[in-house]
Specification:
The chain is of the alpha+beta class. Helix content is 19%, strand content 33%. The strands form three sheets. The protein has a four-stranded antiparallel sheet with strand order 1-4-3-5. Strands 2-8 form a two-stranded antiparallel ribbon.
């Protein structure tokens, strides 16, 4: 399992790579809302300052998580490119097709 934060970090890195790949392309795409759906297991660390953590569960892994409650969550992310001066704009992306991509 991976933490939800790691999944979002990897998504951000992929979107940044797509922006860089398309920076010089004559045809680019405006990036709209990104919807991510995941099944997560929620756990809490012991102790008074215990932290709640969200772990992304892989398909078919539910049986291994029998002692942990799983939840399906949907996140709608609205990516913005932030310039050094703090202004934001809608990012433009491009990239090569990946096998199995929809």
């Amino acid at each position: 399992m991976i933490e939800l934060t790691e999944m979002i970090r990897e998504l951000r890195a992929d979107l940044i790579a797509a922006m860089a790949d398309g920076a010089t392309e004559p045809l680019r795409f405006e990036l709209g809302p990104v919807e991510v759906e995941a099944t997560v297991a929620v756990s809490r660390e012991a102790g008074g300052g215990g932290k709640v953590r969200f772990w992304v569960v892989e398909g078919g892994a539910d049986a291994k998580q029998a002692h942990t409650t799983t939840h399906r969550i949907t996140l709608t992310l609205h990516p913005k490119a932030v310039a050094p001066d703090g202004t934001t704009q809608t990012p433009m992306v491009s990239g090569d097709e990946v096998t199995g991509e929809r």
